[in-house]
Structures are given as C-alpha cells and as structure tokens.
Amino acid sequence: MESSKAPETTFLRSDVMSLAQFYIPSEISKQTVGALGELGLVQFRDLNKDVNAFQRAFVSDIRHYDEVSRQIRFLRNQIEREDIKIKKCSAEESGVSKSPKELEELEQKISETEKVVIELNENQRTLDKRYLELTEMRHVIKVTDEFFESSNAKELEESNIKKSDSTTGLLKDENAVADLEAGKKSNVSFVAGVIPREKINSFERLLWRMLRGNLYMKNAEIEEPIKDPETDELVEKNVFIIFVHGQVLLNKIKKLCESVGATVYPVSESAEQRNEESIEVLARIEDLDQVLSNTRETRINKLKEIAQNIDAWNTVIRKEKAVYHVMNLLKTDKNSMIAEGWVPTNKIPEIQQCLRDAAEATGSNVTPIMNEVSYRSVPPTYNVTNKFTKCFQSIVDSYGVANYREINPALYTIITFPFIFAIMFGDVGHGVLMFLAALAMVLYEKRLANYKNEIFEMIFTGRYVILLMGAFSIFTGLVYNDCFSKPLNLFTQGTYNFRNVGNATEPGFAQQVGEHTGKVYAFGMDPVWVSAENKLIFQNSYKMKMSVVIGVIHMLFGTIISFFNYWHFKSIGELFVVFIPELLYMGSIFGYLTFAIIYKWCTYWKGAQAPGLMNMLIYMFLSPGNVDKNEELYPNQGLIQVILLIIALISIPVLLLGRPIVQKIKNKKVNTEELPTTNEVVAYSERDYKAPEWSFSETFINQAVHTIEYCLSGISHTASYLRLWALSLAHGQLSEVLWDMLLNNVIKLNLNIVLKAIAMFAIIAAWLGLTVAILLIMEGLSAFLHALRLHWVEFNSKFYKGEGYKFTPFSFRKILKKDE
User: Fold this and answer.
1) How many domains does the chain have?
2) Mind listing the pLDDT tens digit for each residue in 505-528?
3) Is 459 found in the same domain as 342?
4) Are residues 436 and 484 in the same domain?
5) Which of 805, 813, 807, 691 is nearest to 17 (CA)?
6) pLDDT for 249-276, tens place per residue?
7) Residues 403, 745: contact at Cβ < 8 Å?
C-alpha cells in the first residue's frame, strides 16, 4: 500500500491511489453518494458480488426510474420530430440534491405531461385521419364526375369497352355506364376509391385475373401528394373507379381493396347527389382545417414549453438512476451503509470536505466516515490529462493502459510522435498547410466544438497532435531543404567539384561524388544537390542511414526508460539481470552500427571509397576479428568488434535465466500472504483476494519467449525504422511528380498573357486540390499510421507492459457526456 503522503500529480506516472472505506448513515446515503458523483473522484467497488443483480436492494428504484427515463425519451422524440430546439440546463437546474417530495412532484409532472402529449397526439392523429379521408373523398367525387360527364354509349362502342391507358376489361352491356349516368335501372354496380400509385399496376392485374376480365376500370392521378397521418410521409395516390355486374363481384373487389391497402369511398350514382356531397365535403374540409390548425398550434406550444425543461428533467432522473446503481454496490450494516472505492491519494482532503458538506446540506448530525484501508490487489491507473495531452494519452491507451505507477509513454510521445511523423512527411510547404489548418482549429475551438460530424470530431480531437506534426514537418522540411519538391536557397550555397568514381563499365557502380571546395551551407541540405546527377542515390543513402540512427536511438531510449521502472518498483535484481543485458545486447550490435554510421559521416575519406557498413556488420558475425585493410573503418576495429560480440553473446543467457532465478530467490524469502497487523484494517473487497501463485516453469517459459523475441526483434525493429526512409522518399517523389506534371508544363506554354493567366489559375487550383487530397490527407494518414506502429511496437515494447486498467470514477459529468 502506498503512503498517504502522495507526490504531486505529474504526467510521468499515474497518480498514487488509495483504497478508501466509507461508513455512511443510511438516512443520508443517497445524498452522500450523489455528492461524490458530483465530485467524480471515487471508483466504487462491488461489495455484493455474491448477490444476484435482480435481488439487490434498489432494483425496484432503478426500474422505476427506467420508466421515467422512457417517458422523457418519448417527450424528447416528439420535440425533435418538430425541430424544436431543446434548452440546455444549467448546473443549478440539474442539481441532484432534491428532496423526496421534489422528486415525487417532478415524476408526477413528467407523467402528466406525457399523458397530455399522448392525448394531443391522438387528437391530431384522429383529425389528420379525418382530413385525409375528406381530401381523398373530394378527389374521388371529382374524378367520378369527370368520368360520368365524358362517358357515353357511343364512346364505349367505338373503343369496345377497352381503354388503352386508363381502362381494363370488358362489360357485356355496352350501355350500362350510360344508363347509370341517366339514372336508369341497371345490374351494373361501381366502386370508387384511392390507392397508392406504386400499387396501381399490380392492383389492375389482380382485378383482371380475379374477375377474368369482366370489369371496366378507370384511374386518374391525384396531382399533389397526400400526407399519411400514421407515418407523416407524403404519399402519391391514384383515384380508381371500377364497374362490374352484380353484388358478388362488387364484394370481391372490396375485399381485394382491403387486402392491398386501397380505401373505398361511397359515391352516389346521381350527379345531383354527387354535387351536394362535393359541397358538403368542401365545407367540412374548411371547418376541419381551422380545427387542425388550432390543435397543431396547441401541441407545438406545449412541446416548446416542455423543451425548456426536459434537459433538466433528464439530467436529474439520470443522476438519480446512477445513484441507485452505485447504492446497489454498497453493503448494508445496521443503520449505516459501507462503501469501498479507489481514490487518488492527493484528492483525499477534497473527498473528506465533500462528505462534510453533504452531511451539512442534509442537516444530519452524523458525518460520513472515510478511512484508508490496506489492499493487495492492483490499483487502477489514473493519468490526469488536459485538452493538449488528452489525444497523446489516447494514442498510448489504444495500445494498452499503463500498469499502476508505470512510466507513462504519453509524455515522450508528445515529442517523438510528431517528430517521427515529420521525418516521413518532411516538406516546408506541406507542413505550413497542416500547421495552419490545425492552428485554425485551436484558435476557433470553442466555435468548432459544437459542430457535429463524426469524421470532423475525430480530426478536431487530435488538433494539437496535427499542430505539432505540422510544426515538426516544417523543421524536417528545412533539414531536407524541400518546399513543394523545390529547394529553398536561404543561405550561401557551397561549391563542389563533381567527379565520377567506381566502375563505370558496370551498371550501378558508377556514381558522381561532390568534393566540397567552398563554404558550408548553414542549415539543412545544400540546394546544389538538386541539380546533381546522383541526387536520388545521395538522398537514398542519407535517409536510409538517418532512419537507422534515429531508430536505434529511439529503441535505446525506450530501453533506458525501463531502468527507471525497475528502480521505482525496487526491482534491483531484475535491473541487473534484465535491464543491463538488454542494454548491452542492443548497444553492442545496433548501437555499434549507429556509431559506425556517424563515424563514417564525420570522416573525410580524401576521395577514396568509404568502407561498406553492411558488409562490416555481416562479417562481424561470420568472421569475428578479421577486417580487410581496405574495409577498415578505424584502427583496432577487429578487436573491438570481437569484444562487442562477446558482450552480446553473454547477455543472452543472462537475460534468459536471470529473471526466473531472481524471482525464485525472492519468493523463498517473502511469504506469499502477509497477514495484516492488529491495527491494520482490511477492506471487505480484499478479504477473499488470493495472490496469483508463482510458478518457476511458467516464469521460465515467459522469459524464454521474451528473450527470443527481444534478440530477434532487434534486427526486425531496426529494419522496421527503414520505413522512415521509404515514406520520406515516396512523399518527395509524389510532390515532385505533381509539380512537374502540372505547374511546370503550364509555365512552359507559349500563350498570350490572358490565356496563360487563366491556365495558371486552373492548374494551380488543380495542383492545390491534389496536394491536399493526396499529399496532405492520404500521405499524411499513411505517415501517421506508420508513426503509430513504430511507437506501439518498436518503442513501447522496450519498457512498457500496458497491462493495467483505467481509473473510472463515479462521475455525473462523464455519465451525462456518454449519454449525449
């Protein structure tokens, strides 16, 4: 257990945690838990693990508030359907410290409001349905009138009772329709109604097959779509009229209409009656319009009134429900409730003050008691972040949450991540564009924080990462002397005498070497190399070696960080048998390679061919101690390489056997279970805790896997950093292609000034668009992912276990944010 005197909060390690035990009087338990939820610094532990979730004390209260939450969701849905803005509640309106009477009144108000809205919805739905029926009836009467006015026996005889576009079927009595119009008795009946337009064709086919062609049908489109009161969607519909012989066929048609969703309306055969019906329908529609308008206005006003308070209601109910969820974790003991939870040690005074304030607010004479208790389980990891460090911490946590008090890689990631990215993305122009885009998001972050878009929110969260990536890209662009694939001549150029060396008769062996004869270019790569014939060969060599140097330094830095972890946890034995062998192995092989690269860079070879480092490293293992005089890098090279090789070989068995032996000795000296002293209070949640049993064979197997992985990964991880070289060259070549294929061609065009200006404007727009789309977004995302991999796999694996779990306190702020 950590000392109660916690160090100040730093980003290097997670905060020191304590296991606290709370004794809370039952009468103020709810208010106390609510106050702790407002503070958000206690991660409660479950003291009722042996009790079924459905048999806990406050299940009925949770179900009750589930129902209230359902009512609020219903009201919110009704408000959102009408596009009414919901007022955000203030901190005072959403306070959880409400008396039982206030809560009861609030719940009753929510229930009554729901009933009122349901009643208004039913009234409006009934009126909308009636309005729909009257509107359809008006169209049916109108189309029926038009049909009977245009129908006569002569037209039917000429068309043989067949209509090319709007009629289907046959009638045996050709004068039947004309008889109906004249009011004569006839055995022909008709039915009229409305059907969705998408169903009219299938409806006609069904009628034809069912009645075997013994019908006469006409349909006409309703011009304006009709609103469906059930779905609130606009539906396009058609009016239809069907003539058949006999009541039996008429009944069949009505049943078919019912099955396909068509609505049948009674229409009189007499023109005078239809005229009267039409006048009556229009009058009723006019009256209903007024009633509907008043009903809608009443409903909208009611929803606007609810929108002013619903967020505050939801916040209060959500908090009450969360409080009961926590209270189900507490243990009941006579007149008090016992709670246990992890708390940051340096926040204990704040928590104690919160408990006193909660007791005073309720008027209780008894103050809840808080004690620190001993524990044997592993505490959670609590890394305090702000808006700047939050995204970097997320990058690390995506790999794995740090073990308790383990060094937090996010601190180093703030610098190393954008720098590694910038090595692959080095370009002054692209860096400036990225930096300005991120700077705009930083400067206007308050305005942009409310913009709801999933992709933008992801980019906005990482605005500070992008800002640093842009800044570092400007720096590496200056080192590469690259701005949109063109060099910047910021300082006085050096002078070189270029000459060919190597075997010019063999392809790939002849190259041009620049011998420096003048001033040195002040910073970055000399722009004179851009015009050199061997520009690409020079850049390949330079960036490849640079990638290896940076990669080895990055991995050695990670290995050195592990020293501080061993020292902090007082693992002195593992410091000698794990850290030192790992450092010696990595340094004697790959550290030596880095030294050789830098030594070769710093040595002036006076026109001679410099020794090849790849062959040097290979023959260091194949032929220890033997170095060809022509390939010698420095004096006594063979002896030094033999010593380094012996150191690397000795490190492997020490790394393999050291940790299991040290842990075996340690487990013999220390009892696996230390009984607490008489004055030490043991937490309820710790009484059944059993420390995991230590096994020598399991430890040996794990260490053997780690040794093999570490030794082999030294090669693969070093090679993995060559991606810095590959992506840097690819980025530069893509930028050069865009420049040469677009801007360069337009500049060379022989056109008059106006046409050339128009062409330049169009090409610059295309070039800028492709630069942003391909080089900034696609290449930037690619470099980001590669930088992520180098940190997760190559860097973190050297010191970071990442097997912890996050500190998740009971916090109303986080609960409400998650709901949003």
Assistant:
1) 2
2) 333 333 445 555 557 778 888 888
3) no
4) yes
5) 807
6) 888 888 888 888 888 888 887 888 888 8
7) no
